[in-house]
């Protein structure tokens, strides 16, 4: 078997540099919340495929559902010959999505594809062109979703021009000095200076920003957005690509915001590692596009739909929503104790909803410390722990450990995190 370095050399020759990889290691196998590379090194996985593996690596119930579906057929193209798994999954999501309004669901392949289709549906329903999203938000890497994404480097650099009917306003994040009133005021100013609200098809927002740093807006803020959208006939789209399926302690994070979105986009942990995304929305809005206006060759793969049906069962039977809350509290207790007992670590704001957990790293002056964050990622990986960073200033550590993690592995990971922080800051 080849080494990590040998595979890395092959990768450099075969794969363009635009596809970045966080670590110079190559997976050989993984189970639940642990991963082994091709050299046999073991890692505790606090990344979960970027929040794709809420049900863990290679969950046996999901593996079984996938195997059974593959034995029947792997693909027909839903637009040519439909299949029951697509319908059954849509029925379940229509019932599980928040709010009393009747729903309909379309399945696609990626989160970006779901966001693009949410915009198409909103435009078809409203017959308007403009879209508003938020600074710090991440919505994908296509030209349109890159345009909606509120972070320039690395997602926009060199790829413009972007579609001209996308506008950004600040996301409310106390860490960045933006209050909710500031954000709402910016919306009002946008309507005065650039576009009328009657020209807006959709406001797109993450209930908890992912790439932006795991910042969450309040119920009051979302109620204000809901009122604004209702007053002007705008579709309110909640991007739940990263927050869906238990990460925040509820199946959808939008269950916690006190309003009913018009459309919800879901992906990542929806199918336990298989490529599947969804737009779930109010039936009258979802029916706006004409037949043939929505779809895709691989959209709603029967294998991925079978996996997603198994994921729902695993979440319910294993009580992973409660487990998400417990994991978040355990991580918070550990980081709060580290912050209070070892101020030299430079731990800043600690925040979480369920197991969607993040903390900032600061320098001695209290400013964002991206270099310390990079050093922590390296030290943690060397010691057998996989982490990721995020945030507008690159100084946020985000934890997306599978919700199926055992208590022992979770504690081992927390210990490795603490030891790596001490090593980076010379406080060991």
Automatic annotation (TrEMBL):
Return the broad EC class.
Answer: transferase
List, alphabetically, the Pfam families matched. Answer: Aminotran_3
**MF terms (GO), sorted A to Z:** 4-aminobutyrate:2-oxoglutarate transaminase activity; identical protein binding; pyridoxal phosphate binding
* Known EC number: 2.6.1.19
State the InterPro entries in the record: 4NH2But_aminotransferase_bac, Aminotrans_3, Class-III_PLP-dep_AT, PyrdxlP-dep_Trfase, PyrdxlP-dep_Trfase_major, PyrdxlP-dep_Trfase_small
Does the keyword section mention Transferase?
yes
Signal peptide stretch? none
What name does this protein carry? 4-aminobutyrate--2-oxoglutarate transaminase
What is the species of this protein? Ostreibacterium oceani
């Amino acid at each position: 078997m080849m080494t990590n370095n040998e595979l890395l050399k092959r990768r450099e020759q075969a794969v363009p540099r635009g596809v970045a990889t966080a670590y110079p290691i190559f997976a050989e196998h993984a189970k639940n919340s642990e991963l082994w590379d091709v050299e046999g090194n073991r890692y505790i996985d606090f990344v979960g495929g970027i929040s794709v593996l809420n049900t863990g690596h290679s969950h046996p119930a999901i593996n079984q559902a996938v195997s059974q579906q593959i034995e029947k057929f792997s693909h027909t193209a839903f637009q040519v010959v439909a299949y029951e798994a697509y319908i059954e999954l849509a029925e379940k999501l229509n019932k599980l999505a928040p709010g009393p309004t009747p729903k309909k669901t379309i399945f696609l392949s990626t989160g970006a594809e779901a966001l693009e289709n949410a915009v198409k549906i909103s435009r078809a329903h409203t017959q308007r062109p403009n879209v508003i999203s938020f600074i710090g938000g991440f919505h994908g890497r296509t030209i349109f979703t890159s345009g909606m994404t509120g972070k320039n480097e690395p997602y926009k650099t060199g790829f413009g021009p972007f579609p001209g009917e996308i506008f950004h306003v600040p996301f409310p994040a106390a860490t960045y000095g933006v209050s909710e009133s500031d954000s709402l005021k910016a919306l009002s100013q946008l309507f005065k200076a650039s576009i009328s609200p009657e020209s807006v098809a959709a406001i797109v927002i993450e209930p908890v920003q992912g790439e932006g740093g795991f910042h969450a807006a309040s119920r009051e803020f979302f109620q204000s957005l809901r009122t604004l959208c209702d007053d002007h006939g705008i579709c309110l789209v909640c991007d739940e690509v990263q927050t869906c399926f238990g990460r925040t302690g509820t199946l959808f994070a939008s269950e916690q915001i006190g309003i009913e979105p018009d459309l919800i986009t879901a992906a990542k942990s929806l199918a336990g590692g298989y490529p599947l995304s969804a737009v779930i929305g109010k039936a009258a809005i979802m029916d706006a596009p004409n037949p043939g206006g929505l779809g895709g060759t691989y959209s709603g793969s029967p294998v991925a739909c079978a996996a997603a049906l198994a994921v729902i069962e695993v979440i319910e039977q294993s009580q992973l929503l409660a487990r998400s809350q417990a994991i978040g509290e355990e991580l918070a207790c550990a980081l709060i104790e580290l912050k209070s007992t070892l101020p030299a670590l430079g731990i800043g704001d600690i925040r979480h909803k369920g197991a969607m957990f993040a903390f900032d790293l600061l320098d001695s002056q209290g400013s964002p410390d991206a270099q310390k964050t990079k050093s922590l990622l390296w030290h943690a990986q060397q010691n057998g722990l996989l982490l990721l960073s995020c945030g507008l200033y690159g100084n946020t550590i985000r934890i997306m450990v599978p919700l199926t993690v055992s208590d022992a592995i979770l504690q081992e990971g927390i210990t490795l995190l603490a030891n790596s922080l001490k090593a980076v800051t010379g406080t060991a």
